[in-house]
Amino acid sequence: MPCEVAARFLILYGSQRGQAQSIAEEICQQAAEHGFTADISCLSNQHNYNLDSEIRPVVFMVSTTGDGDPPDTAQKFVRKIKNKSLPHHHFSHLRYALLALGDTNYANFCNGGKTIDSRLQQLGAKHFYPTGHADDGTGLEVVVDPWIEGLWDALKKTFSSMATSDQQDADLSDCTQDNFHKTASGQEKNKSDLEVDLHLLKLSEADSQKGKEIKSDSSDVETLSTVLVASLKQSVPPLSQSALSVPALPASYLEVRLEQVSTEREPVPSDKDGYHEVSISKAVQLTQDDAVKAAILLELDISEQNLAYQPGDGFDILCPNRASEVEELLLRLDLQTRKNCAVQVNLLKNSSKKGIAAVNGSLQFILTWCLEIRSAPKKAFVRALVDFTQNGSEKRRLLELCSKEGSADYNSFVRDANVCLLDLLRAFPSCLPPLSLLFEHLPKLQPRAYSAASSSLQHPGKVNLVFNVVEFPARPEHPARKGLCTGWLAGHVSSILRPLGTVPASDGLILAVHVRPRPSSTFHLPADPSVPVVMVGPGTGVAPFIGFLQQREKEREANREATFGEMWLFFGCRHKDKDFLFREELERFAHNGTLSHLIVCFSRDEPDAAGTVNRPTYVQHNLRLHAKNVASILLKDKGSLYVCGDAKNMAKDVNDTLLEIIGNELQIDKLDAMKTVAGLREEKRYLQDIWS
């Protein structure tokens, strides 16, 4: 049949940290099993594809970064399709499907994919399969797995339609809708309900598991003393007695060999990716020793590299895996005596993969600098580990964790618990995976991004970065440990770290890190200095605003006759005397008029002797107390609001408070308030730099 001959489609991905690329490659690999041939390309490689004349079905994988932006690798493509001179029928020949990746802990969920999707629609392109929106906040696989499963039938129907009808304008989205919804949620719904269906998946799984646990508890009341408790290592009924729907075993595609001992000195893998080695000229602990979290400021000397940045920009820092964890992994894999061997990686001859990234260095070097050994293993990795596990009960438990029926256990004991490969190998001692499995399933070790906490006007040739040392307490699944990058940085600078307000010792010790500028496209002060700004930055979220204020202070000194808009800062921390970051500097800004209003709160301090009633605890409470001023700045004075800090709690609470403030000020309902806030975002007057 003609459709069998022409069953070739194109996969395009835009990936910031490798997840979209990994999913795209997975689809490409599965294509042959379903009778298709797939070509794959990053959106940035525009010489590899031409959508203007593309007649094959196209499958897009697009992540979201920053304040709802498309990933860096998709920016050029987005600019191209947003060209206003393109006619409305420009892509009328194009049939496509799109899977957007995002995180509901952040604003503008899946906006990178949504931006491309809506623009393709405006230019006449047609869906052959409904768009999926996968949420990393609750587990991408909840949406990704059923979306991929339904994709194959959608492609078959598309190719069949193309073969039997010469470009008929059939609504293929409708004819594949039922298949996707049956796969994802077991119900038939309208296309507009797609995203609701995908979220119901998560809710129904969780509710089902809760129901099972309640039923199990009630039936075992008489034997409480012998009731088992589910853990990473073991399950309880009904899961332990259930038949399992297990994902297909991913096909191996790599051959990894260890050759002669590497004798060359191995540098940090930085040059080709735009990283620069810079010295650390100062390390200061900003918090007291008894603070809940330790905050550290690093001053980096970037004068020799001539690295330019603006307040609001960030810097990527390369960090290694912990040496102790690398050593334990080598020992566990029985490879400790071969850690200095050079690694040779090749594609298996029967693999459908098109190519692999070049790998150079010793085994120890690659495990230290190239692979993210701390990442939570995906279900496909867990499934692959089963075949290299000898003990029967351990095999069964790993199968449960990667099964559909064990999704709640996987979420509780692997994903939410931040379990890594080493934790799994500790829990399942009979599991001994080959090295090739690690290279196939572990993601690339990613740099960590930190906001600049300075202005080059005030600190020429220098940049300050601030971070909390993240602590993960011990739990049954893993021992206590520090955050990968923050823990490494704290240890790296321990010999030069000094308390705030003390003079550093001049011992001549020079420490360095590898950094790369990470410019922000939007998170900068308004071009017009007369525009008022409101800044919300509790804890280390204040970092970019220190840069803003240093910049504004210097601008005021240089232009005394100019008009400058008000600057409001809402800052919060736990204790006034323990972790009030940049206290002296902020009070100086307030005293000299750079900062018009410094509004602070301390969530853990006891009320003062006056016993203040309803004392504000968090930044959103102070926003509410100053609602009239905030509303006036945003709605009447056309000012800007900047929010920096925690995405899961603070940013959501601030957003809810903003909706309340605007609703009350304009006397409108929540829906209209949401539209107003969306307008602020669209105008780039409500900007976020947040993390989870």
Automatic annotation (TrEMBL):
Its cofactor is FMN; FAD. GO terms for cellular component: cytosol. InterPro entries: CysJ-like_FAD-binding (IPR003097), FAD-bd_FR_type (IPR017927), Flavdoxin-like (IPR001094), Flavodoxin/NO_synth (IPR008254), Flavoprot_Pyr_Nucl_cyt_Rdtase (IPR001709), Flavoprotein-like_sf (IPR029039), FNR_nucleotide-bd (IPR039261), NADPH_Cyt_P450_Rdtase_alpha (IPR023173). One of its GO terms (molecular function) is [methionine synthase] reductase (NADPH) activity. Its EC number is 1.16.1.8. It is an enzyme of class 1 (oxidoreductase). Keywords: Amino-acid biosynthesis, FAD, Flavoprotein, FMN, Methionine biosynthesis, NADP, Oxidoreductase, S-adenosyl-L-methionine. It comes from the Eukaryota. Transmembrane segments: none annotated. This is Methionine synthase reductase.
